[in-house]
Design goal:
It is built from 6 helices and 9 strands. The protein has 183 residues and is of the alpha/beta class.
């Protein structure tokens, strides 16, 4: 599945992540939640940062990631178990992964991300602008997407010491949230 998954991916997301990397104007530590095979985002971003670590819950994807991105770390872990990760991270992101978790697990993941972020670190994720559940397909796979909606994400993450700095549509009609750790 790992290499088959690559054929379904495009370069969408790279620009959004690189824009956040460039905000820091220094080498940073990046944690990629739901990294998949590392194609295309980890392959593009990892050479530009100090430390890059991906986590994914699929062994075939992790195996493919290790082939695709030899200069980065990858852990077999469900993103909702983020509390098993240690260290301080300047940028934590989830491109097209967090939204597939039911709301309870999204909240668990977001609390974990807030605890791992350095002061003024960024948390970026794709999700729905409006609250609700959608079902769609990626290739031959049926996927579910869950969203708390922008007001609820903003309120919940403010309770975790984060401030919304941008929420808008980006490439591929993805709604991208960017929060900054302020407490």
């Amino acid at each position: 599945m790992g290499h088959t998954y690559d054929s379904l991916r495009s370069d969408i997301g790279i620009k959004d992540i690189l824009d956040q990397v460039n905000v820091f104007q220094r080498k940073i530590n990046v944690l990629d939640l739901g990294c998949g095979t590392g194609h295309p985002i980890a392959k593009a971003v990892s050479p530009l940062v100090k430390r890059y670590c991906g986590i994914d819950n699929s062994q075939p994807k992790v195996d493919a990631y290790l082939d695709n991105v030899p200069n980065a770390e990858c852990l077999l872990l469900d993103i909702s178990n983020i509390r098993q990760i240690s260290g301080r991270w300047d940028l934590i992101f989830s491109w097209g992964s967090l939204c597939h978790l039911p709301i309870k697990l999204q909240k668990q993941t977001m609390v974990g991300a807030a605890n791992l972020l350095s002061f003024e670190g960024r948390f970026l994720f794709t999700g729905g602008k409006e609250a609700g559940k959608r079902t769609g397909t990626v290739g031959e796979y049926t996927v579910h997407q869950y969203s708390m909606g922008e007001p609820a994400y903003t309120k919940f993450l403010a309770e975790q010491g984060m401030k919304l700095i941008n929420a808008s549509y980006s490439e591929g009609n993805n709604y991208v949230y960017i929060f900054m750790k302020i407490a």
